[in-house]
Amino acid sequence: MATAVMLVAFPVLLGWVLPDTAQFVPSGWMAMKANTALLILMSLASFLCTERDRSRWMKRFGFVAGVAVFVLAGATALQFTDVYLFPVNTFPINTMLAQDPYGTIPGQPSLQASIGFLLMGVALCALSGQAHRTLRVADVMAMLLILFLLSFVGSIFFAREGSPGWSLKNQIAPGTFVCLCLLTLLVALRRTEPGGIFHIFRERGIGGKTARLAGPAALAFPFVLSGLREVMIRFHLLAANYAVAFAPAVTAVLALLFVLLLARRSRDLETALHDLSLRDELTGVYNRRGFHLLAEQAFREALRASSGFSVIFLDVDDLKVINDTAGHDDGSRLLQRMAKELHHAFRLTDIVGRIGGDEFLVAAKATQNEILHAIQRLHDATAVASDDEFPLRFSYGIASLETTSDTLTDLIQQADARMYETKRRRKGESGWHSRMESREHLQQ
Question: 0.85 cut: is pTM over it?
């Protein structure tokens, strides 16, 4: 953007100072006055000199350039009033760089350009400082510049002949307007740094995503609506009075639609954030926090309804061995399969969570007999692929609500103890069978 500003303003300034070079400047660019081109180049120099990595002297030069922009733009703007700080004939500020034989007021930039560069000068001076209050001034000036440019856009597209806005349409050169827009965008981008008013656009969270979605829409919405009204009037789709009455209704409906879209977007982002905080990233089931939060709620409902409630503690067998021998990728796939089979074996209302490396918990509003049926379904599902390289085997323990004095923590501890008892018994039997097979082999 800085290069584009330079490529527009510098040839114009050169064309005014050295008239012989004006023939090489694109047609229409010379509508920009010499003073305006100088203001643009001074603004660009001030902006580039106030970047963070610049030296102290460079930043001072940037501040001085910003002050010069403000003073020159202010002196130009005063000529449109009855206030004169100096006689124009004594000090010809309009033609101090080059003569202008073609203008009604030779060399004088437009009032709109003067106002724009007044705001730009203040913003550039504020950018050169590091104090919080000074940078807040830059934020305010950036917003005023955006307001100024959008107002001019509105006067271009929607002012009718004979209206006050019509006389404003041709009082700022297109090249000047483009350069002012680019300079304003540079200032706004500078204020996307931490602490700036536009920093929210760079954030990755919900606020940043919402701002990037809503910001452009909010800027375009009024112009789209005004354009729709102008189309209806100019092409006689509606009478002028009906078009004016129709505009507020369209505004209300579109605003409502916009609010609904934003609300839906916020809800989706909030749901995704909620899932991230409650769900295990690897398996997709609830993590420890999510399981305890939802299981506690289900447990209290079961107590109030005097209905059955059970907790199953499951442990994937030999996961450490698989991780050590085959690698953690195979172990992770085994855990993912376990989570998938748990979802298939239990109901949608049952709460499935992974609370440790190889440990899963299931909380269900069911009696122990109903849970045993679900466990059987899980056994049948895991036995189907028992010939896999790493078959899915698990140990489990069940604890059911028996007295009102039981707590969820009590049930989890009971199920945990029974699961480990099952695992120890299975390892003992496996060791006994292994010893018997070794003895028979030695006897042979």
Answer: no
